[in-house]
Every structure is written in structure tokens, then in C-alpha cells.
Amino acid sequence: MFSLGFTFTCAAKPIITIFTEQFPPYNFSNKGQLQGINLDIVRTLCELSQVECKFELLPWARAYDLVQKNQLSGLVSTARSAEREDLFYWVGPLVSSRTFFYRLRDNKHINPTDITQVSAYTLGVVRGNIYEGLVESIGFQQDKNLLKVAHHYEYMNLFFKNKIDLILGSEFALDYQLQQFGHGGKEVVKLVELPVNTLQGNYVVFNKEMPIEIVERFNEQLEKLKAVDNFDAYRHRYVQ
């Protein structure tokens, strides 16, 4: 029995809620079915750890707030940073990829060649997203050249209407984001990589009141799962 009065027995599996957001290919809803590279990994970890997990898709800011308030809850995928370190228990890293700035192919006048030049243009980000602080640290400012929105589709819509100059996208995620707007990768051009040296990859996080035995079980099973093929089987379901 745990100190918080939480009993872990074979007869009654612990039930936890894993919050997630629409961020393909890592976690997303496809015709009502929640899936994705990291979500599939976490679902497997739940089974291996003998924990019943319920997944709930929410906007990022809402999910990030709820996981800090609900004892038996987690959140996937969460970028690990110094500012967030003490807020959660961490299980990972899971799967992630490099992030770049992109422009529309026709906008040839937008052509920064290094990170010091990108803030000469306008950019959209999701409010509360890990990228928000990173782009502000390299010169982007709200109400000047940085537009903060609640959902990815808001800035993507403005981007394709030539209302903002740049978007950010990870190498794995961008094609999925573009497909949601009926576009493919040919419409955009990869520019400068966003330095993410302060980040440590994508994780599933748990509320700090989660029984530590559950967290330890997840980390133990994650290491075993990663040792099989470094998550290649999960990655190849969504990224060729």
C-alpha cells in the first residue's frame, strides 16, 4: 500500500488519465481514434506496467494545467526543460526530431541563413508551447513579430494566407500538419534549425503526487522496450 492510500494489486489495476494534444505524428486523433508514435509507446507501457490508462485529447494549455492538478494523471508528449523539471515525474525520453523554421516556397524574399536573422520576420506559435520561450530568447516579441494563438491550425491558416512569414515544424511532424490543410511538403522550404540544446526530448510526465512505484515501473519498462529496437517499430508506423 502506498503512503497516499493507493493500493496496487492485481485484482484492481490502478486507473490513471493520460492527457494529450493534437500533435501528429507523436499523439493525435484519427477519426476519433487516439494514436501516434509516443502515444502508442505509452499505451504499451501502461499494459506492461499493469496500469489501466485512459487517454484524453485536449488543447495543450488545458492539458498542461490539468496534469498539475490531478494526482493520478500524466501528459504526453512533453518537452523536458529546466523550468519544468521540478513540476513532474519524468518517463523517457520517447521519440522526437529536430525543429526548423519554414517559409512558403513562393516567398523567396524570406531567406534567413542563420538563427540571428529569423527574427526579422513574423512567426506564429501556440501559446504555452515549449517553443514560445525559445523563440523569444532569439529575438521574437509578442505584438511585434510573434503571434501567439491557442491552436496550431490558427497560425497555419494565417501562414498559407501570407499573413505571417514563418512557421516552426519538426522533421517528423510538419508533413502531418500540412496534410491537415490539404498541402504537402512541396509548398514549403526548410530554412534554419531552431536550437533546442536546453531541451532533453519528449517525455510522458506524471503529477508529483503519483505513487512513485508506478513511475518506476514505467521507467523500467521503457528501458526494456527501447532496448528492443530503439522504438523503430513504433516510429515506422507513422514515419517512413
How would you describe the overall organization of this protein?
The protein has 240 residues and is an alpha/beta fold. The termini are far apart. Strand 8, helix 3 (130-137) and strand 9 form a beta-alpha-beta unit. The chain is built from seven helices and twelve strands. Helix 1 crosses helix 6. It has helices at residues 37-48, 60-69, 130-137, 152-160, 174-179, 212-229, 232-235, and strands at 15-20, 28-30, 33-35, 52-57, 73-79, 88-91, 99-104, 123-126, 146-149, 167-170, 188-193, 202-207. The protein has a five-stranded mixed beta sheet with strand order 4-1-5-12-6, sandwiched between helices. A three-stranded antiparallel beta sheet has the order 10-7-11, with helices on one face. The longest helix has 18 residues, at 212-229.
Gist of the model:
This protein has about 240 residues and is α/β, with parallel strands linked by helices. It has helices at about 35-50, 60-70, 130-135, 150-160, 175-180, 210-230, 230-235; strands at about 15-20, 30, 35, 50-55, 75-80, 90, 100-105, 125, 145-150, 165-170, 190-195, 200-205. The protein is globular.
